[in-house]
Amino acid sequence: MRALKEMSTTTNLTLDEFSQLCIPRLEKVYDFYLRDTPALALKNTMEYTLQNSGKRIRPLLIYATGRIFDAPLENSDLPACAVELIHTYSLIHDDLPCMDNADLRRGKPACHKVYGEGMAVLAGDALHTLAMQIIASYPAPLKSQRRLDMIATLSAACGPFGMAAGQALDLSIMSDKNISLDLLENIHRLKTGALLSACVELGRLSSNDDDELHQQSLKQFGDRIGLAFQIQDDILDMEANTELLGKPQGIDVKNSKCTYPLLYGLNQAKEKVQSLYHDALDAINMFGHQAQLLRELTGCLLQRKR
Amino acid sequence: MRALKEMSTTTNLTLDEFSQLCIPRLEKVYDFYLRDTPALALKNTMEYTLQNSGKRIRPLLIYATGRIFDAPLENSDLPACAVELIHTYSLIHDDLPCMDNADLRRGKPACHKVYGEGMAVLAGDALHTLAMQIIASYPAPLKSQRRLDMIATLSAACGPFGMAAGQALDLSIMSDKNISLDLLENIHRLKTGALLSACVELGRLSSNDDDELHQQSLKQFGDRIGLAFQIQDDILDMEANTELLGKPQGIDVKNSKCTYPLLYGLNQAKEKVQSLYHDALDAINMFGHQAQLLRELTGCLLQRKR
């Protein structure tokens, strides 16, 4: 890990330094909107889960990919903030009693446990809309067509052709232990992979890059880390304890949810993760030193313990 | 009413004929997407409430406003479909037990009563995203900046500065009978008015019109009909029986929700509605015969019984 965090030749920043530079930028974007929201209770509900921040992996994927193509940070701010809002809305809705019924999120009471289910549904909806509003209208030196491409990419990834479809399939087959590997991987790709993969494309769209080969390589990279990420989640869920993970351990087992490690065992699942990250790194070889931050971030994802 | 439905000088179509021309067009747009959704259960859930169609008032406002400026129907198709999807998502989420807890919608079981609460939340989310995806990517002879303006207008109207804020305020003050007229009107404007008002602007954005005075007049028109519409809803809710309205009569009274007719009485509420429609029609006087379809539609809204 130490080697992975050495000074990047692209920006002369370590991944930690880069993260400390970027994350406050995206938070500034949503603060700009939230401070003027006319409904105080809604604002508080939205902020509660936003401020109970995770690792901001998705925005970092966008910023780090943008660096490959020397994208201005002002451009990456828009999709970085939008994706974090989309991710946050999905967590709030996921935790509802009618979905995963989770009382804890990142070690704190889930949104609906604090503000009630109705306000949690509305806060999720409002974050969802705000994400699109930000890409459409926040000031940045981005061409209109580029903003539209971002909205098309993001909506394809989180709507009925991506995340929402994955969650629906997940909900439908929740108690079915006999599903095929193909179906399970398809659900993972839709539910978690699509949004993570979109981040990489959104990073590229923050720049002027128009090279199809670049797009394809990043798509391959995004696809691999997306699938790996969900399998890791399921491994961690089996292994971790409640304190470390911030949600009740084994919630998926309790809900009888079908997962990769449950179907194939922990060892095979871990090998799969290693192999997917290996393939992901291969896919971005072509970008050389320019991709150093993205490579470091990939290394951190591979090592993650929560 | 008969006089209002005479042949329009703009298009030589009555409002009924115009409606029969336009509505199948917007349905074709969402069908194009829904047929390829990878999750069958999600598709069915989304289609259930979409097909249990209401009067499609919002899309008609878009198409009719577009006709003032000779906007191609292909351009209006995008926001017309998007707004209907947004409206449908809001109905699905509104009916949930944690919100209005309504068992019936337009005389049929509410979405969550048929498909379960989890799938209803997801279907609402998926319709929400799809609306943005359609404006960003469905083929039409629309400039990129115009599409972006549409997304900015729509998201401002339905997110934390519009509909979602109105619903949150509504939820917060649900049982408070002592709220001011200003607050009540503000909630109405946000909850119902913002989206209706956005329709008029979206109709204008379907054309090449760039006249600020046009925009302001339409904004005034939209504001008036938006507020009138919500007060009418509350009047109808007090008056109508379950069969006619398609939802249990007096659900707002049962939930102790504060409404205009509850605060000021039926008569004063009806006068307010008349006066608002009068002001609305005044605001579009400048468009002459070009606004005939919009005027007919306004007349229908004034007369509506459900």
Helix and strand layout, with pairings?
The structure is a homodimer of 306-residue chains.
Chain A lengths: L14 H20 L5 H12 L5 H12 L4 H22 L9 E2 L2 E2 L1 H5 L1 H21 L6 H15 L4 H10 L8 H25 L6 H28 L2 H4 L5 H4 L5 H5 L1 H18 L8 H12 L3
Antiparallel strand pairs in A: 1-2
Short description:
The first copy, chain A, has 306 residues and is mainly α. Chain A has helices at residues 15-34, 40-51, 57-68, 73-94, 111-115, 117-137, 144-158, 163-172, 181-205, 212-239, 242-245, 251-254, 260-264, 266-283, 292-303; strands spanning 104-105, 108-109.
Could you walk me through the main structural features you see in this protein, from its secondary elements to its overall organization?
Two copies of one chain form a homodimer. In chain A, 70% of the residues lie in helices and 1% in strands. Residues 1-10 of chain A have low confidence and may be disordered. In chain A, helix 3 crosses helix 9, helix 3 (57-68) packs antiparallel against helix 15 and helix 7 packs antiparallel against helix 9. Chain A is mainly α. The first copy, chain A, has a two-stranded antiparallel sheet with strand order 1-2. Chain A has one domain: Orthogonal Bundle (Farnesyl Diphosphate Synthase), CATH 1.10.600. The first copy, chain A, contains 15 helices and two strands. Chains A and B meet through helix 2, helix 6, helix 7 and helix 8 of A and helix 2, helix 6, helix 7 and helix 8 of B.
